[in-house]
């Protein structure tokens, strides 16, 4: 039941993240008057940065656990999770801190963009946090300890949001570049991480809900920004 919910949320978050990025964040940045060449350079730098962070296992983690259908020897995933439990918390905390800064930048650029950016991040974070919780349990954390550490990591987004709001408010010229950097992260996560997960389920029966949920994600963003 839980895995089904995560799968549905992944599809929904793809629609929300891509539509937020391509229909709102990037147009907002490029319409700001900032130099287009520098914005594209920021987009390229962002994509490469997220790729390197993934390589360092600081941003995206494997959320596999025993019984997930992948063919490993019994206990393999638990051992791997045990090695990476604290690394996951460090990476998740950094990720949430940056998310807070990105949300602040989006709100400073445009309140409606701030809402859809926050929605895109929440849509992605729900399945991510569920996966992290499962990995921490496999790493030997008690349910209470895993929940508390996940909560503390999530609160770092508030710290990032406050820092971003007060810093970027004084340096508004940086906002378009932060929006483009955020967009590179959304595009990378959606295309490199989430969509390949969806492609593993290739039957028509499984594909139809995926397509419908992506469409729903796009529709939600369009509805929230209808007056923009």
From TrEMBL:
InterPro entries: ZIP. It is found in: Membrane. Pfam families: Zip. Keywords: Membrane, Transmembrane, Transmembrane helix. It is a multi-pass membrane protein. Coiled coil: none annotated. It comes from the Bacteria. Its main location: membrane. The keyword Membrane applies. The chain crosses the membrane at residues 35-53, 147-168, 174-195, 207-226. This is ZIP family metal transporter.
């Amino acid at each position: 039941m839980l895995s089904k919910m995560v799968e549905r949320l992944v599809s929904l978050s793809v629609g929300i993240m891509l539509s937020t990025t391509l229909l709102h964040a990037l147009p907002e940045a490029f319409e700001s008057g900032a130099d287009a060449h520098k914005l594209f350079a920021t987009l390229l730098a962002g994509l490469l940065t997220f790729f390197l962070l993934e390589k360092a296992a600081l941003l995206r983690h494997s959320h596999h656990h025993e019984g997930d259908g992948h063919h490993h020897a019994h206990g393999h995933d638990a051992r791997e999770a045990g090695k990476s439990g604290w690394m996951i918390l460090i990476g998740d905390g950094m990720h949430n801190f940056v998310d807070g800064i990105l949300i602040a930048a989006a709100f400073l650029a445009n309140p409606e963009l701030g809402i859809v950016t926050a929605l895109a991040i929440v849509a992605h974070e729900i399945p991510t946090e569920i996966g992290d919780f499962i990995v921490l349990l496999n790493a030997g954390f008690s349910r209470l300890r895993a929940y508390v550490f996940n909560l503390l990591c999530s609160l770092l987004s508030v710290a990032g949001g406050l820092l971003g709001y007060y810093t970027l408010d004084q340096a508004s010229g940086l906002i378009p570049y932060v929006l483009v950097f955020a967009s590179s992260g959304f595009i990378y996560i959606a295309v490199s991480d989430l969509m390949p997960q969806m492609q593993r389920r290739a039957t028509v029966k499984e594909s139809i809900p995926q397509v419908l949920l992506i469409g729903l994600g796009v529709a939600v963003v369009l509805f929230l920004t209808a007056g923009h």
